[in-house]
Amino acid sequence: MHMRYRNLFAHFFENKHLKMKTLYRIPLIVTFLFTVAAGFAQTNPKPNISGVILDETQKPADYVTVVLFKASDSSVVKTAFTDPNGAFNFNVSGKGSYFYKASYMGYKTLKSKTIVLTEDNQKADFGTAQLTASTQNLKEVNVAVTKPLIERKMDKIVMNVSNSSVMTGSTALEVLQKAPGVTVDQNDKISMMGKQGVLIQLDGKQTYMSSADVANLLRNMQSSDIESIELITNPSSKYDASGNSGIINIKTKKNKNGGTNGSVNGSLGYGKNLRANAGINLNHRTQKLNLFSNYNYGKFERDNLIAIDRISNGTPDTYFMQVGESNRKQYNNNFKAGLDYFIDKKNTIGLLVNGYFNHGNETAVNNTLIGPSFNQVDSTLITNSLQANKYNNVSYNLNYKSVLDTAGSEISADVDYSKYKGNDGSNYENDYRFPNGDRIRPIRYTRNNTPSIIDIKAFKVDYNVSLNKTVKLEAGVKSSWVKTDNDLQAEELVSNAWQNDVKRSNQFVYDENVNAAYTNINKQFKNTSVQIGLRVEQTNSKGNLITTNTVVERNYWDFFPTLFVQQTLSKNNQLGFSYSRRIDRPSYDALNPFIYYLDEFTYSKGNPFLNPQYTHNFELSYTLLQKYMLSIGYSRVNDVIAEVILPDAANQSLYQTNANIATNISYNANLNVPVQITKWWQTNNNLNVFYLSFKSPDLAGSALKTGKTSFQFKSQQTFTIMDGFTAEINGSYESPLDYGTLSLKARYYVDAGLSKSLFNKKASLKLALSDVFNMSENNLSSAYPGLTYSVHQKNETQIGRISFTYRFGKNEIKPARRRATGTEAEQGRMKN
C-alpha cells in the first residue's frame, strides 16, 4: 500500500464447529499412503557397503554428501549423507568395482579407493577417510573458501546472508530488499518476480500472519540471526499451497559447534535517528541433550515523509494537496529457548519456546490544502496524531523425529500452540482553518483503541521413504486452527466528554481451519528426475462483524497438483521444468472491515467479502556450469486479490482497500550471472524482466485494463582486500511498474560495507552504509480510469551502521537440528 494507514491485526482461528467427517477424510488418505510406503520400506534389503568420514580435526563429519560410482563407467549408483558419527551406508546387490566421492562446503572433494564385489550382496567397508580444508593462495594471502552471496540450487535460489558486510546491523526486512527478484516498497509490501502474494516462512514454517504483521515481524528480526534466505518460485506439494508468487524461507543461524559455546553481538546505526540492537546466543550439548537459547533487544527510530496531490471530480473539481511527516519509535525484545533430547541414535524429541514483547509509538502531522486548483487554497485541514502500540506473543512447539532406516526414511511430527495479544491506541486532532489562519469550526478530537487476540493451534506429520534405489515417496498431513478477535473502540470528544462513535466502533471475529494432506513421488532415471505431487486442502472460514451481525462463512475443497522434471543434458548443462497450482486466501487485515483514517479525506478499510485467488505457475530453467542460471516463467491468477486506491465521491475522499480483480497474467525471465573478475574481485548480477497485466470488467463502476513490461537489476561486488578483510558494494534499479490500480515510478539505491575478522576469527567487525546517495523513495500515480492523484513517499533509508560479533566456547560435539515451529506460517498473518 502506498499510503500511511492503520495496520489491522490478524487473528488465528479455532473452528469449533468442524464436522467429524472433515476431520476423518484427509488423514485417511495419507494413512493409506503411509501403509503402502511402509510395506515397500520393509522389503528394502540391509546395507552392505559402509565407511566413515572425518573432518580436518579427525572428528566425525556429519551431513557430508557421499556419491557411489561404478568404476567401469563412472556412472552414479547411489547418494547418501553421513550421520552424526560420520558413517555412511549403501545397499548394492550387483557385482563389480565401486568407488565414492565425498564433498562438503569448504573442503576438497575426497575420492576413495576402489573396492571389488565378487558376490551379490557382498559386504565391504571403505574404512575411514579424512577431509581436507579447501583454501586458495592469493599471492601470499591465505583466503578461506566461503559461500557465494547467491547460489542456485535445483528448486530454489539461496542468498547467503551471514558473511555479507552490507547486511550488517540490518533488519530482516532490509536484507530482503537485496535478494534477487524481491522488492520491498516504502510501505514494506513484499513482492517477488514483480508479483505480490509471497508466502513468508521462518525455518521452513508458515507464519499465519497478515502482510502488515509479517513486515513488523521482519522489521524486528536482525541480520545477525539469519544464515540464508531461500527464494522458491515454484514450491512442491510438501509446502503449504499459499503464495501465488512463491515462498521466501528465512533460515536462522544454527550453532555448528558442540560443548558449551555461544556468541554476543551488537550494532549501532544512525541516519536522522539512532537505532541500536544487542543480543546473546548460548548453546550447550552433551551426548544426550542439547540446550539452546538466544535473546535480542532492539531500539529503532524512523522518519517518514508522504505527499499526496489529488483531484476529486465534481462540479467544480476539488484539489487536495497533502503533506505528512511522521516519526516512529519501536522497542523490541525477542527470545528463543529450547532443548533436543536424543532418545537414541535414531529418535529425537524436542521442545521450543519463542516469542517477543514489543512496544512503540508514532507521532504524525498531516497538512492538507484544499481549493479549486493546486494554485488556489480556500481551506486547510491540519491533522495531528499520536499512536501507541504493544504486541506480545509466545509460541510453543513439541517435535519428534525418527530415522527409520539407513536409506534416509524418516517420520517427523510437530504440535504447536501460539497466543498473540496486541493493542493499538490512536489519538487524532482535526483542525479546519481558512487561509488566513482562522478556524472554520472547533477542533475535532477522536481516538481509537484496538485490542487484539490471536490464537493458533497446528499439528503436522511428515513421512518419507525410499521405495527402492530410484523411487522416493513423501507424504504428510497438517491441520491448523486460527481465531482472531479485533475490537475497534472508537470515541469522539463531545462537550469535554468522550462518547462512543457508533459509526466506527465494531468487533470483528474471524475463524479459519485448514486441513491438508500431500504426497510426492520422485523417480530418478539415468539423466532425468521426475517428481509428481498432489496436495489436498479443505478450508472452513467464518468472518463475523459482530456489531452489524454481518457473517461471511465459507467451506471449500481444493486440489493442488505439482510436476517437476530435471534433465541433465551433460556435466555442465541442466534443464528443468515445473508446474504448480496455488492459492492465496485473503489476509486477516484485508478481511477486517474497520475504517482507519489518515485524515478525514484519506482512509483505509478492509473487505470481508474477498474470495481466495488461484494461480497456475509454469517455469522452465536452464543451468550452465552449475552457476549461470536462466529461468522463464508464466502465471495466470484468477480472482486476483489486489490492493487498490479508489475514490469515495460522496465524501470527496480517497480510500485504500483490497478487491478481487478478475485476471492477472504474468511473464517473467530471470538471469543470474556470477563472475570471478580477478582473484580478489567477484561479482554477482541478477536481471529480472517481467510483464504484468491486470484486467477487470467492473472495479467500483469502471473497467480496468493495464499492462507493462518492467525489469529489476541487482549487482553485488565483493572485494578481498586481505585475509579476513573484505568490502562489498550492492546496487539495485527497478524500472517503472504498473500493479493493479497503481502506477509506480523507477526506484534505485546503492549500499556499501566493510568486514574484518578479528581475534583469530573468533570475532568480526562490520561497517555499512545503506542507500549511499539517499535516492531510495516511492513515487506513484493512478492507473484507475478517471482518478487523478500522485504520491511521493520517503522513508529514512540512508543509515550508517557498525556491528561487532564475538564467538566463544568449546567446539567438541556437533549440535542437533534446530526445529522450526508449525505455527510460524500462521503467525506470518500478526503484529510485532
Automatic annotation (TrEMBL):
**What species is given as this protein's source?**
Pedobacter kyonggii
Question: What are the record keywords, sorted?
Answer: Cell outer membrane, Membrane, Receptor
- Asked if the keyword Membrane belongs to this entry, the reply reads yes
Query: Which Gene3D superfamilies does the entry mention?
Result: Carboxypeptidase-like, regulatory domain (2.60.40.1120), TonB-dependent receptor, beta-barrel domain (2.40.170.20), TonB-dependent receptor, plug domain (2.170.130.10)
Top-rank lineage group of the source organism = Bacteria
An example of a Gene Ontology cellular component annotation for this protein is: cell outer membrane
SUPFAM superfamilies named in the record: Carboxypeptidase regulatory domain-like (SSF49464), Porins (SSF56935)
Q: Per its record, how is this protein called by name?
A: TonB-dependent receptor
Segments forming domain Outer membrane protein beta-barrel: 404-806
Where would you find this protein in the cell?
Cell outer membrane
Q: Which residues form a coiled coil?
A: none
UniProt entry tagged with the keyword Cell division: no
